[in-house]
Each structure stands twice: as structure tokens, then as C-alpha cells.
């Protein structure tokens, strides 16, 4: 078996002992691939050289700095007073709860006794049944009339007693003179002792009559004093009855608006019961709060805080209505829950189609303190709250400033500024020392080789 296989292999081998045909083809294939790659690279290099040789040479453009078109504001030194925007609530400066001074049934009510209606001073808002109080007044007057009659009777008796005392006194004087004569006559023997004793008895009787008349007069005078005291008491009773009768009518103490009412005709009310509340719509005030810093600035200003003019703005729908007001007083205490000092301003009249009411939340424009020798510039001019840029010879120059206060969209500043400086008022992100700028009014037509940029710092435009 082995001898037969070896014989077959010898028959298939090529003559001369070389490699068989399949092995020779596998050796030539890599050589062909390498040759093709070399040809491709050589062609690409030749093409690149030709493209580079055909490139047109261009002369470089000269560099021109970017010039930004900006807006400026003129720095003007002046005494500036910013306005502070605050909020407060309207209240009634004068309000009162009317109580029924007497009890009884309500028999009459004013037709305008309705919450929100306006009534005039002196108007009778309601009336309580006066029958019992009229009877008390009649009785007091009758009692006083009786006392006055008793006083008249006592006066007549006093006059009679005075006349009797005068007559008794005269009789006493006569009896005393008669006794003196009798004693003289008895010494001469013209009269007996019995006759002298009779005259002494008459004198004693006259003295007793004088004493009785004097005592009766004193008693009558004491009775009169007592009746005068009764008359004074009854006179007070009359005044009390008249007042209680007058209190049956509840009178409006001033012109105002009814804020609350709790009565109806026929209802029984008790004494000291609140039946009507009224406020003076011409004495409204607004209460607002100043922070400690704001109060400190205004309190130390040359212009006093009390008496300062403010404006009250009430927004109704989409319309703002303005009322003038004047600061009337400062709160008695610092309100910790509000974080400041309460201030009250008295609201003045204004020709507005709407009526301001208590409880309305309003905005206020309050003048702050005066800052002398400061600059007012737009908010956009301030950079990082500590510096601005001025335009000088077409370039930006930095100036350090200090922010004092805001007034709406304006900033009140002081610092390294001069009168008439042109301050950059545009939000320019590229703003720095030496940047080229121009104002719109001085911007010429774009030159052929200059570059101009918009104020917002966008892409330069030729």
C-alpha cells in the first residue's frame, strides 16, 4: 500500500523539482498590490503639487479696530431727590360707633341709613319711641312747680314773720322804756312796787314774743333752704328728662359715610348698644411703613419728614387715580412685625371719578432725602455698581463712582465725574478702557476698509 502512494506523488510533481503552479500564484499577488498603492500615492502627490502651484497669491488686509455705535448721557451735577415707591392701606382718620343712649322701640329711621350712603351733620338717623321720656319730663316739671309753690309760701311766711318780729321788737323797746320810767317814779313814791312788777311782766312778755318771732323766722328760712335744694334737684331731673328725651333721636355728629347699621323700624334697642358706625370720608389717611434705613435718611434730612408732600395712587381696573397727601404724623412705636416705622399721611381732595374708601391698598410715591451735588444717570450707565465709562476723544475711559440711590430707572451717583462728561449709556459687553465708540449722530458712512459694530456687541458689519 505505501509503495503505491509514493509512486502517485512522484508522478504529480513537476519536472525539474520546482514549486507547483498554485503556490507560485499566491506569491505574486502581494507584489501587485504594493505596486498599485505606490502608483496611487504618486498620482495624488502630483495632483497636490499642481493645485498648490495654481493658487493665486492675495495681499493681506490691513487691521482696523472695531468702532461701536453707542448712546451717551450728559453728566450734570445737581441736587437730586429720588422718589421711593411704597405701599400702604387707606383708613378713616375719624370714625365713631354711635350707641343708643336710651332703650326703647325704634319708630323712625333715616332713608339713607344704609351702609355706603352719605349723611349730613345733624341728620336724625333714627328715633326711639319718646312716650315714656316725655312723661318723665312732665312729671319732673310738675314736681318742680310744686316746690316752687312751696318756696313762694315760705317766702310769704318769712315776710310775715319779719313784720311780726319788727313789731315785737318795737313793743319790747316801749316796754323797756316804760319800765325805766316806772322805776324812777317808784323811787320818788309815785308808783307802788306792784305797778313796777306789772311793767316788768309786760317787758318779759314782749321779750318772749320777740324770741318766738325770731325762732319762727329762722325755721322758715331753714325750710326755704330745704325747698331750694329740692328745687335744684328737680331742676336737674328736668334737665335729665330733657336730655333723655333728646337722646331718643340719634344725630349724625359730622358729614360722613355709613359703614355699618344694625337697626330696623320696630326693633327694640337697649341703652349703650352700637346701632350705627360712621366715618368721615373727607378725613381719610393712609398708613405705610418706612424701613429703618429710609426713616433714618428722611429724619435727618434738612426737609422735615412731617409735612412732606406725597402722592397716593389707587389702581382701579387698568386706570391709576392719584390723590395728594401730606405726612401728618409718625407712629408711636417701631413695628417689629412690619420691620420699620409706621407713618400716617392725610389724604387731600382730588377731582377723580372714583371715591377712595377705607381699606383700599394703594401705592405711594414718597420723596426721599435731597442729595446735593450728585449726578442722575440712566440705569444702563452703571457698571458693577462702582464705575461708569465716559466717551473721550472717541474712546472709553473708566470713572469710579458710588451708587447712592435708585430713582425708578435712574441711578443717583457721586464720584470721579465732571460737569458735561459724556457717559456711556448703552449696555456694551465689550466696554473697557480704550474701546473705540461713536454716537449715532456722528456716525459717518461705512468706509471701505473700516469695521463698525452694533451697540449690543454683535458681529462687526463692514
Indicate the topology.
Blueprint: H1 2-12, H2 21-53, E1 66-69, E2 72-74, E3 77-80, E4 83-92, E5 95-100, E6 104-109, E7 118-119, E8 124-128, H3 131-188, H4 193-246, E9 249-251, E10 256-261, E11 268-269, E12 273-279, E13 284-290, H5 292-299, E14 309-316, E15 319-335, E16 340-347, E17 361-367, E18 371-378, E19 387-392, E20 395-407, E21 410-415, E22 422-424, E23 436-438, E24 451-453
Parallel strand pairs: 1-23, 1-24
Antiparallel strand pairs: 2-22, 3-18, 4-13, 4-17, 5-12, 6-8, 6-11, 7-10, 8-9, 10-12, 13-16, 14-15, 14-17, 15-16, 18-21, 19-20, 20-21
- Oligomeric status: single chain
Helix fraction? 25-40%
- Write down the overall geometry: rod-shaped
Distance N to C terminus? 98 Å
Q: Quick one: biggest sheet?
A: 6 strands, antiparallel, barrel
By DSSP, the count of extended strands is 24
Task: Give the count of helical stretches.
Answer: 5
**Overall average pLDDT:** 84
Kindly provide the radius of gyration, computed on alpha-carbon positions and rounded to a whole number of angstroms.
60 Å
Which class best fits the helix and strand makeup?
A: alpha+beta
Q: Taking strands numbered 1, 2, ... along the chain, how are they ordered across the largest sheet? A: 4-13-16-15-14-17
Q: Which H/E pattern describes the elements? A: HHEEEEEEEEHHEEEEEHEEEEEEEEEEE
What share of residues are in beta strands? 25-35%
List low-confidence stretches. 1-19, 443-451, 456-462
Amino acid at each position: 500500500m505505501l509503495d503505491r502512494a509514493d509512486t502517485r506523488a512522484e508522478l504529480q510533481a513537476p519536472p525539474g523539482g520546482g514549486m507547483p503552479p498554485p503556490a507560485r500564484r499566491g506569491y505574486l499577488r502581494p507584489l501587485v498590490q504594493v505596486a498599485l498603492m505606490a502608483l496611487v500615492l504618486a498620482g495624488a502627490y502630483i495632483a497636490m503639487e499642481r493645485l498648490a502651484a495654481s493658487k493665486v497669491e492675495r495681499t493681506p488686509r490691513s487691521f482696523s479696530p472695531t468702532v461701536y455705535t453707542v448712546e451717551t448721557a450728559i453728566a450734570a451735577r445737581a441736587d437730586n431727590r429720588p422718589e421711593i415707591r411704597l405701599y400702604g392701606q387707606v383708613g378713616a382718620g375719624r370714625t365713631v360707633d354711635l350707641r343708643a343712649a336710651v332703650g326703647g322701640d325704634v319708630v323712625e329711621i333715616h332713608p339713607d341709613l344704609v351702609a355706603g350712603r352719605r349723611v349730613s351733620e345733624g341728620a336724625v338717623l333714627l328715633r326711639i319711641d319718646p312716650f315714656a321720656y316725655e312723661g318723665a319730663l312732665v312729671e319732673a316739671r310738675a314736681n318742680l312747680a310744686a316746690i316752687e309753690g312751696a318756696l313762694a309760701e315760705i317766702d310769704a311766711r318769712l315776710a310775715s314773720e319779719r313784720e311780726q318780729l319788727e313789731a315785737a321788737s318795737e313793743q319790747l323797746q316801749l316796754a323797756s322804756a316804760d319800765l325805766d320810767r316806772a322805776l324812777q317814779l317808784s323811787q320818788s313814791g309815785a308808783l307802788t312796787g306792784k305797778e313796777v312788777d306789772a311793767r316788768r311782766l309786760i317787758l318779759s312778755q314782749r321779750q318772749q314774743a320777740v324770741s318766738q318771732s325770731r325762732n319762727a323766722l329762722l325755721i322758715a328760712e331753714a325750710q326755704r333752704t330745704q325747698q331750694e335744694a329740692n328745687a335744684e334737684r328737680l331742676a336737674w331731673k328736668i334737665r335729665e328728662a330733657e336730655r333723655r328725651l333728646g337722646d331718643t333721636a340719634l344725630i349724625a355728629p359730622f358729614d360722613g359715610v355709613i359703614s355699618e347699621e344694625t337697626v330696623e323700624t320696630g326693633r327694640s334697642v337697649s341703652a349703650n348698644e352700637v346701632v350705627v358706625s360712621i366715618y368721615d370720608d373727607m378725613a381719610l389717611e393712609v398708613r405705610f411703613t418706612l424701613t429703618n434705613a429710609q426713616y433714618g435718611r428722611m429724619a435727618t434730612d434738612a426737609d422735615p419728614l412731617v409735612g412732606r408732600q406725597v402722592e397716593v395712587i389707587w389702581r382701579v381696573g387698568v386706570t391709576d387715580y392719584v390723590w395728594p397727601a401730606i405726612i401728618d404724623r409718625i407712629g408711636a412705636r417701631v413695628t417689629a412685625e412690619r420691620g420699620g416705622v409706621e407713618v400716617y399721611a392725610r389724604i387731600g381732595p382730588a377731582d377723580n371719578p372714583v371715591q377712595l374708601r377705607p381699606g383700599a391698598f394703594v401705592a405711594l410715591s414718597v420723596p426721599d432725602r435731597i442729595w446735593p451735588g450728585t449726578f442722575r444717570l440712566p440705569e444702563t450707565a452703571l457698571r458693577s455698581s462702582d464705575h461708569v465709562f465716559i466717551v473721550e476723544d472717541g474712546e472709553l475711559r473708566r470713572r469710579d463712582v458710588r451708587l447712592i440711590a435708585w430713582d425708578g430707572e435712574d441711578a443717583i451717583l457721586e464720584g470721579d465725574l465732571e460737569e458735561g462728561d459724556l457717559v456711556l449709556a448703552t449696555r456694551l459687553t465689550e466696554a473697557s478702557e480704550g474701546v473705540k465708540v461713536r454716537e449715532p449722530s456722528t456716525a459717518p458712512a461705512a468706509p471701505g476698509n473700516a469695521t463698525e459694530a452694533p451697540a449690543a456687541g454683535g458681529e462687526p458689519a463692514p
